[in-house]
Write a structure and sequence with these properties.
Dna-directed Rna Polymerase Ii 140kd Polypeptide, Chain: B, domain 3, 7 helices, mainly alpha
C-alpha cells in the first residue's frame, strides 16, 4: 500500500519512538555501548532529522501511499490504520500493539545491522528447522474441505436449474 521505501527512523518515529536515543535503545538493546552499530545507524538518523514528531512521520508515510490527496488529519488516520493492521500483523493488530511492534522492529534491525557488520552470520532461509511444515492429515483435510465445498456448490446449481425447469427427475 506504500509505493516508496520508508526510512527505518521514520518508521520508528511513527511507532512513537521519537528521540534518537529511544530508537537506538530499541535497536542496540543487547549492547548499548557498541559504537560500531551506532555508527552504522548514523546515516539513517541523519536522513530523518527533518521528521521529529509522530504526526510528521505518519504524514510522511501516508503521502507515499494511497492517501496523497487527503487532508493532513485524514492522512495521519490512514497511516495509523496501516501501521495497526497491515504492518507486522503477526505481532498485533490492536491499537495498543504499536509498542510491541517497535520492539520487534528493533529486534529485526539489530539482527540486520549485526549481520551487515559481520558480528553474526546470516540466517539460512533454506534450513528446515526454520520452515513451517504442514502434516499430511491437515493437508488432506483442507483438500477434502475444498473439494466438498465445490461439490455442494455444483449440486446446488444443478438442483436449482432442474427445479426451475420443472423436471421430475434429476439430470446429472
Amino acid at each position: 500500500m506504500i509505493k516508496e521505501n520508508i526510512p527505518l527512523v521514520v518508521l520508528f518515529r511513527a511507532l512513537n519512538c521519537l528521540s534518537d536515543k529511544h530508537i537506538l535503545s530499541r535497536i542496540c538493546f543487547d549492547c548499548p555501548d557498541d559504537t560500531e552499530m551506532k555508527e552504522a545507524l548514523r546515516p539513517s538518523l541523519e536522513l530523518a532529522k527533518m521528521i521529529d514528531t509522530q504526526e510528521d512521520a505518519l504524514d510522511y508515510i501516508a503521502k507515499r501511499g494511497a492517501a496523497q490527496a487527503y487532508t493532513k488529519e485524514k492522512r495521519i488516520i490512514y497511516a495509523k490504520l496501516l501501521l495497526e493492521t497491515e504492518f507486522l500483523p503477526h505481532v498485533s493488530t490492536m491499537p495498543d500493539g504499536i509498542y510491541k511492534k517497535s520492539f520487534f522492529l528493533g529486534y529485526m534491525a539489530n539482527k540486520l545491522v549485526k549481520a551487515s557488520l559481520g558480528k553474526i552470520s546470516e540466517d539460512d532461509r533454506d534450513y528446515y528447522g526454520k520452515k513451517r511444515l504442514d502434516m499430511a492429515g491437515s493437508l488432506l483435510g483442507n483438500h477434502f474441505r475444498q473439494l466438498f465445498r465445490n461439490f455442494t456448490d455444483i449440486m446446488t446449481k444443478i438442483l436449482k436449474r432442474d427445479i426451475d425447469n420443472g423436471h421430475d427427475k434429476i439430470l446429472l
